[in-house]
C-alpha cells in the first residue's frame, strides 16, 4: 500500500469529518461543550501522563491484555479456515466497553466534571460507565430504553448495585436510539457540570475519534498476539457492527495491512423484511445523533424502527468511520439474522465452553460462514466483544421458540 | 424588503414586540393544523415558526415530542409541510413563515429542491436545530440566493461571548436567543441572566433578537419584552392543540391564547 492510500492517521480531518461523514450536527446549546471537550481531549491526547494512567488501569483494573484464543473445535466443525477469538469477554465487566469508559472517565476527571451520563442498549456500556464512575468517584445516570431494560435485566441490576441511576426511556421504540435522544436532552440541560460518556464510535466529533483511540487497544494487542502465534497476519478480521466500537477497535490497527476486513450487521428477521438493523447494508446517508453517516430512514428522512435480537445492535445509525470504510471499499459489511446469531451463540457454548454476547454472536455467525468457504491455510480473527450472561433468559427463550 | 425585515421594522415603528409562534405542522392532522395556523395568524402572530415534525427531536421536550409523533402518525412529511405553508400563504400574505426543522429531512430533499419549494410556498427563512454554523455551508451555499432564504441562527446561554459575536456578525433575518439550557418546554426563567445575554447579543448584531424556550404566558412575555425584539411561544400553544385537538372550540381557544400573548407584546 503506498503512502497516499494509507487510512491510519488520515481521518478525521481537523473538523471531525471522515470524508463526507462525521462532523458536529448538534444544537447550539451543546456546541460549546463539544468545543470544550475537543480542546481538552486534544491536550490529553498528547499527554503521556494521561495515557500512562489509562494503560495502568487497563492492566490492573481490567486485566488486559485479553488473550487471543484458537477455537479448535469450532474450526473443525466449520471445516475450513482457522478461527481465532479475541477474548474481550475476559475484560472486567465482561465486554470491550470498559476500554472506552476508562478513557472518557479519566478525561472527565481531568476536566473537573463530577457527573457522568451514558446511554445504553444491551447495558454493557451502562455497566462499564457505572463501574468507572464508582471507581473514580463520580455520580452516574444511565439512560436505557424500557424495552431493553426488560430484555437485559441482569445488567440493570448491576448498574443499580454499582450506584448508578437507571432512567427508563419509553419514547419511540424504547430502545438504544431513544435512550440516546434522552441522554442528549438531559445533557443539554446539565451540560455545564456533566460529561456525556458516549458508548460507541458514533455521535458528534470528537466522540468517534476518542472512542476509536480508546478501543484500538483491541486491535493493537490482537495484531501483536496473532503475529507471535502464527508468524503472519490473519487472512481476515471479523467483528459485529451496531454503532461499531468493538469493530473499529479491532480493525483500526489493521487498516493499512494486507488483510480482509468483514463487519457483521444485524439482519434481524432478514434484510428483506422491515425488521432489521442493517444500517450499512440497507441505509442511506443522513444525519442522526450529531453526525453524518449511513442510517435507516424512510424516503422523507424520518428514522425508521429497527429490530435485532441483540439490544446492542438494535440501532438505526452507525459510526461515521464505518460509513467511510464502506465507501472506500476497505471493509465488507454483511448482515446476520437473529436465527444465525442464535445458532452461533449455542454452537460456541457447546463446542468451546464460551457463552458469547448476542452482539458478538453475529460476528461469530459470519466467521463460521466464512471459515467454511475458505481453505485451512487461511485464518480468521474474530472479536468476541463480550460475554453472554446478560442474554441468557432472552436468548434461551428465543432458541426454544425458533427450535434451534 | 423581505417579510422578516418588513415585519420587525413595522413593529419597531409602533414600539411593539413581535409575537413569534411555534406550531408543529400536521398536528394532529393536516386540516386541523392548517386551520390552527390560519387562526393563529389572524389573531395576531407576527412571525410563524412552522415546525416540521421529526422522529427523533433531541432538542425538544415532551410536549413537542408528542406533537411530532402525532403529526408523523397522520402521515406528515416535508413535502406536505411545504404544501401547508403554500396553503397558508394563500390566506395570509404578510406573516413571515420560518420553516423550523431538524436537518435530516431537509438534507434528504437537498438544498436546491428545498430552496425552490420554499420560494414557491412563500417561506421566508429556515431554522435548523442541529445545523450549527460549522456545518451549514454545505447546504446553504447551494441556495441560488442565500439572502432570499436566510438561515436563522441560534445562540445559547452556553455560547461564549467570542462565539456569540462571530455568529451574530453573520446573522441574517433575526437571531434566536435560547433563554435557558435544556430542551423546549415550560421551565424557570432567570431574567437577570437572560437580560445579560440579550444585551451582549444586541450589541454584537444588526438584526432583531428573539428570545425563546420556556416562555409560555403573557407574564413571561412582559418580563422579557424589554430585552427582546420578539418572543417565541411554542410548547404552550402546542399544548392547547394537544388538549383540544378534537374539540370544536380549538380555534377559538388558540385565538384567545394568541390575543392574550400578543397583548403582552404591546408593552
Q: Determine the fraction of residues in helical runs of chain B and give it as a percent range.
A: 40-55%
> How much helix, percentage-wise, in residues of chain A?
40-55%
Task: Just give the CATH class of chain B.
Answer: Alpha Beta
State the shape of chain A. Answer: globular
Terminal-residue CA separation of chain B: 26 Å
The CATH topology assignment of chain B is: TIM Barrel
Count of alpha and pi helical runs of chain B: 12
Report strand order across the widest sheet of chain A. Answer: 3-4-14-9-10-13
Structural class of chain A: alpha/beta
Summarize the helix and strand pattern of chain B as letters: HEHEHHEHHEHEHEHEHEHH
- Evaluate the radius of gyration of chain A: 19 Å
Average per-residue pLDDT of chain A, rounded, comes to: 96
Number of helices of chain A: 16
Measured between the Cα atoms of the first and last residue of chain A, the distance is: 44 Å
Overall geometry of chain B comes to globular
Fold topology:
The complex is a heterodimer of chains A (404) and B (267).
Chain A lengths: L16 E2 L2 E5 L5 H15 L2 H15 L5 E3 L1 H7 L3 E6 L9 H14 L4 E6 L3 H13 L2 E7 H6 L1 H9 L3 E5 L6 H15 L3 E3 L10 H9 L1 H14 L5 E5 L4 H7 L8 E9 L10 H4 L1 E5 L1 E6 L24 H9 L3 E6 H15 L5 H16 L5 E6 L7 H11 L2
Parallel strand pairs in A: 4-14, 5-6, 5-8, 6-7, 9-10, 9-14, 10-13
Antiparallel strand pairs in A: 1-2, 2-12, 3-4, 11-12
Helix pairs in contact in A: 2-4, 4-5, 4-9, 5-7, 9-11, 10-11, 14-15
Chain B lengths: L2 H11 L4 E7 L5 H14 L3 E5 L10 H12 L4 H14 L5 E5 L1 H7 L1 H11 L3 E4 L4 H8 L12 E3 L5 H9 L5 E4 L12 H14 L4 E4 L5 H7 L5 E4 L1 H10 L5 H16 L2
Parallel strand pairs in B: 1-2, 1-8, 2-3, 3-4, 5-6, 6-7, 7-8
Helix pairs in contact in B: 2-4, 2-12, 3-11, 4-6, 10-12, 11-12
Amino acid at each position: 500500500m503506498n503512502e497516499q492510500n494509507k487510512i491510519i492517521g488520515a481521518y478525521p480531518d481537523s473538523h471531525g469529518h471522515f470524508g463526507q461523514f462525521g462532523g458536529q450536527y448538534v444544537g447550539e446549546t451543546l456546541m460549546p461543550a463539544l468545543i470544550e471537550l475537543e480542546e481538552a481531549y486534544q491536550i490529553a491526547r498528547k499527554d503521556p501522563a494521561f495515557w500512562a494512567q489509562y494503560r495502568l488501569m487497563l492492566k490492573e483494573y481490567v486485566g488486559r491484555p485479553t488473550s487471543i484464543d484458537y477455537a479448535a473445535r469450532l474450526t473443525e466443525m466449520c471445516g475450513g479456515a482457522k478461527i481465532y477469538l479475541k477474548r474481550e469477554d475476559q475484560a472486567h465487566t465482561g465486554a470491550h466497553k470498559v476500554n472506552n469508559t476508562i478513557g472518557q472517565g479519566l478525561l472527565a476527571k481531568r476536566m473537573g466534571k463530577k457527573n457522568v451520563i451514558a446511554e445504553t442498549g444491551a447495558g454493557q456500556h451502562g455497566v462499564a460507565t457505572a463501574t468507572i464512575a464508582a471507581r473514580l468517584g463520580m455520580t452516574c445516570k444511565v439512560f436505557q430504553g424500557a424495552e431493553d431494560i426488560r430484555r437485559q435485566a441482569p445488567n440493570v441490576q448491576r448498574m443499580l448495585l454499582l450506584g448508578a441511576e437507571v432512567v427508563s426511556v419509553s419514547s419511540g421504540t424504547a430502545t438504544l436510539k431513544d435512550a440516546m435522544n434522552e441522554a442528549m436532552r438531559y445533557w443539554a440541560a446539565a451540560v455545564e457540570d456533566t460529561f456525556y460518556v458516549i458508548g460507541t464510535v458514533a455521535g458528534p466529533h470528537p466522540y468517534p475519534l476518542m472512542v476509536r483511540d480508546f478501543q484500538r487497544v483491541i486491535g493493537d494487542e490482537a495484531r501483536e498476539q496473532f503475529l507471535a502465534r502464527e508468524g503472519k497476519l490473519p487472512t481476515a478480521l471479523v467483528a459485529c457492527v451496531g454503532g461499531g466500537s468493538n469493530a473499529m477497535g479491532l480493525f483500526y490497527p489493521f487498516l493499512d495491512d494486507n488483510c480482509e476486513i468483514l463487519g457483521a450487521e444485524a439482519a434481524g428477521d432478514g434484510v428483506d423484511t422491515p425488521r432489521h438493523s442493517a444500517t450499512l447494508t440497507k441505509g442511506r446517508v443522513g444525519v442522526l445523533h450529531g453526525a453524518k453517516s449511513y442510517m435507516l430512514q424512510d424516503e422523507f428522512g424520518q428514522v425508521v424502527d429497527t429490530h435485532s435480537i441483540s439490544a446492542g445492535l438494535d440501532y438505526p445509525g452507525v459510526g461515521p468511520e464505518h460509513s467511510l470504510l464502506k465507501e472506500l471499499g476497505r471493509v465488507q459489511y454483511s448482515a446476520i439474522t437473529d436465527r444465525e446469531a442464535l445458532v452461533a451463540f449455542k454452537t460456541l457454548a457447546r463446542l468451546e465452553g464460551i457463552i458469547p454476547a448476542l452482539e458478538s454472536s453475529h460476528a461469530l455467525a459470519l466467521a463460521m460462514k466464512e471459515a467454511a468457504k475458505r481453505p485451512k491455510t487461511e485464518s480468521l480473527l474474530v472479536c468476541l466483544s463480550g460475554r453472554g450472561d446478560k442474554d441468557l433468559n432472552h436468548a434461551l427463550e428465543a432458541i426454544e421458540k425458533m427450535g434451534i | 424588503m423581505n417579510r422578516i425585515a418588513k415585519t420587525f421594522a413595522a413593529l419597531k415603528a409602533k414600539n411593539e414586540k413581535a409575537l413569534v409562534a411555534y406550531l408543529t405542522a400536521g398536528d394532529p392532522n393536516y386540516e386541523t393544523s392548517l386551520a390552527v395556523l390560519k387562526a393563529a395568524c389572524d389573531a395576531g402572530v407576527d412571525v410563524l415558526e412552522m415546525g416540521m415534525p421529526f422522529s427523533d427531536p433531541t432538542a425538544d421536550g415532551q410536549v413537542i415530542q408528542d406533537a411530532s409523533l402525532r403529526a408523523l402518525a397522520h402521515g406528515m412529511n416535508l413535502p406536505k409541510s411545504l404544501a401547508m405553508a403554500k396553503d397558508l400563504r394563500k390566506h395570509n400574505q404578510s406573516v413571515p413563515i420560518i420553516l423550523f426543522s431538524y436537518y435530516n429531512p431537509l438534507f434528504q430533499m437537498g438544498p436546491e429542491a428545498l430552496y425552490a419549494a420554499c420560494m414557491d410556498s412563500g417561506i421566508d427563512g429556515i431554522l435548523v436545530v442541529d445545523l450549527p454554523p460549522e456545518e451549514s455551508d454545505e447546504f446553504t451555499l447551494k441556495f441560488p440566493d442565500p439572502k432570499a432564504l436566510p438561515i436563522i441562527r441560534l445562540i445559547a446561554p452556553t455560547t461564549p461571548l467570542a462565539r456569540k459575536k462571530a455568529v451574530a456578525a453573520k446573522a441574517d433575518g433575526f437571531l434566536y436567543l435560547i433563554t435557558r439550557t435544556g430542551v423546549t418546554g415550560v421551565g424557570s426563567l432567570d431574567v437577570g441572566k437572560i437580560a445579560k445575554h440579550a444585551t451582549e447579543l444586541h450589541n454584537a448584531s444588526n438584526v432583531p433578537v428573539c428570545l425563546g424556550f420556556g416562555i409560555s404566558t403573557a407574564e413571561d412575555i412582559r418580563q422579557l419584552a424589554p430585552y427582546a425584539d420578539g418572543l417565541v411561544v411554542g410548547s404552550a400553544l402546542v399544548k392547547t392543540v394537544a388538549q383540544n385537538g378534537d374539540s370544536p372550540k380549538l380555534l377559538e381557544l388558540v385565538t384567545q391564547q394568541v390575543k392574550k400573548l400578543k397583548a403582552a407584546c404591546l408593552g
